[in-house]
TrEMBL record:
UniProt xrefs under Pfam families: OmpA
Keyword Transcription part of the UniProt annotation: no
Domain (OmpA-like) ranges: 160-284
Span of the signal peptide: 1-22
Coiled coil: 25-133
Entry-linked PANTHER family: LIPOPROTEIN YIAD-RELATED, STATOR ELEMENT OF FLAGELLAR MOTOR COMPLEX
Name under which the protein is recorded: Chemotaxis protein MotB
Keywords: Coiled coil, Membrane, Signal
Length: 284
């Protein structure tokens, strides 16, 4: 309300109620002005407080929204934390189980390796003993058959535990014959005396010939060199059995002309190919 209007209303009131003194009038006027000023100040304060209240309401609304978002984030984090804890526990349990299985398997493998090492050591020891026995047999044959070796009638070789006594056919057989002649039996007996002590080897009697075809009446008995080499090997094997060699250790094999040790283009080469080989090998 305008200031002049309020003063006029105040004066009018004073006139209605009666005449007042000038002093009283001034006092009332001052009082009205004071009230107007106070009202204006209160209105300004109200407006300021209203604006402040509106701002606080906005802040409160924003804070409530932020709080709701924070609570949601917290709930999600709690849920994620629980999920991670469960996942970690599950992973840890699985790894612990795997570690236990691997530890058990390692223990089994260590035991198996120890067993295999022990077995290898035993096999190696047995192999060394067999080589020693073969070497001893080899040395005994060399010593026993010095005369035949010096004459070139017999050769003896040892390679990787395989011992071979090679006897040319002229020592054991007459030409075209498969029966061991008396002089050949003497030579065989020297071999037999050594082989009687061999119990852990197979004894293979191998018959070999040259490549000269069998002709004439002899073919009725020995059509080819296969038959001749077979008959000679069997006769030698049979004589070894008769002299006490365990027949379960014996085998007779015929190679005929197909496993030569020298070319067949000379008398000397053919003579080397006509032979009986007594071979000591590991048992099957």
């Amino acid at each position: 309300m305008p200031k002049t209007v309020m003063i006029a209303l105040f004066i009018a009131c004073a006139l209605v109620t009666g005449c007042v003194s000038s002093g009283t009038y001034e006092a009332k006027k001052l009082q009205a002005e004071g009230l107007e000023k106070s009202l204006s100040e209160q209105q300004n304060a109200y407006q300021k407080l209203s604006a402040e209240n509106a701002s606080l309401q906005d802040q409160l609304k924003k804070l409530k929204a932020d709080l709701g978002s924070t609570v949601q984030e917290r709930d999600l984090l709690v849920k994620d934390k629980q999920g991670l804890e469960e996942s970690l526990k599950s992973t840890a349990d699985a790894k612990n189980k795997k570690i236990g299985e691997l530890s058990q398997r390692m223990g089994q493998l260590e035991a198996e390796n120890a067993r295999l090492k022990d077995e290898i050591a035993q096999v190696q020891k047995q192999k060394e003993l067999e080589v020693q026995k073969t070497s001893k047999t080899y040395e005994s044959l060399l010593d026993t058959m010095k005369s035949e070796i010096s004459k070139g009638e017999v050769t003896i070789s040892e390679l990787k535990g395989k011992l071979t006594v090679n006897l040319i056919d002229a020592v054991l057989f007459d030409s075209g014959k498969a029966e061991v002649k008396p002089e050949g039996l003497v030579v065989l007996q020297k071999v037999i005396d050594i082989l009687k002590n061999v119990k852990d080897k197979a004894i293979r009697i191998e018959g070999h010939t040259d490549n000269v075809p069998i002709v004439g009446a002899l073919t009725r008995r020995y059509p080819t060199n296969w038959e001749l080499s077979s008959a000679r090997a069997l006769n030698v094997a049979r004589y070894l059995q008769q002299q006490g060699i365990d027949p379960t250790l014996l085998a007779a094999v015929a190679y005929g002309e197909y496993k030569p040790v020298a070319p067949n283009d000379s008398d000397e080469g053919r003579a080397k190919n006509r032979r009986i080989e007594i071979v000591l090998v590991a048992k099957d």
